Structure formats: C-alpha cells, structure tokens
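Researcher: I'd like a structural prediction for the single chain below. Treat it as a standalone chain; there are no partners to consider.
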Amino acid sequence: MESDDVLLNFFKEHTVSKRNQEIVLNYIADLRDIGKGLSEFTIANNTRIMMFVLKNLFTDLDKLTKDDIRKYNAALETYRRKDGKFLSKEKKIGDKSESLNTKCIYSLPMDTLVD
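Model: Treating it as a single chain, here is the predicted structure.
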C-alpha cells in the first residue's frame, strides 16, 4: 500500500531504529485490520503523524519517559502547518472562548509513562 511505501522510504532517509519501524508498521497494519472501514486518507494521515512523531522523538516508542514527552511537546509548540499557522488555535464555544488544542492529535499521554 502507498502508506507503507512512504514509511519505508522515510525509514531509509532517517535513522529509525528497527524497533520503532516494527512498532509503526504494526500500528498502521492494525489500523487497516481493526478499522476495515477506514479510508486510505485516514491511514495516510496516521502515517504522517507517525513520521512527525519519529522525527521528534529519539527513543524507542516502547521506552518513552516523561522527559521524552516533554521534549516532544516542546517541539509541537513551535510546529507550524504548511499554511504557516500554529497547530494551536482559539475557537469560540458557546458564550465563552475556549482553547481548542488541535495538536492533541499528535500528543502522547504522559500519565502512562515512567520518569
């Protein structure tokens, strides 16, 4: 599939550990298997997200610490989309303005990690 080819080329162009390659390929395969109804666009979007994660984390994904996540979240703070806008934006909800944090797509759960 196209997403697999994109990932394999990414792995060749970047220094991605064998373990991370395995984790990411299994994740994408699981998306295809579990979510049989998922569109190729959804798979491609998850592929792009995983490539962003791998570019900004330098530890095997199954060995992440809270410090790794803090560094990753710091990278997100400076990340801009192709249109130049930051991932975070404000959105008015109801009578009050709330922050709609669109970078949650890329966020990793710190509460499941060890120091």
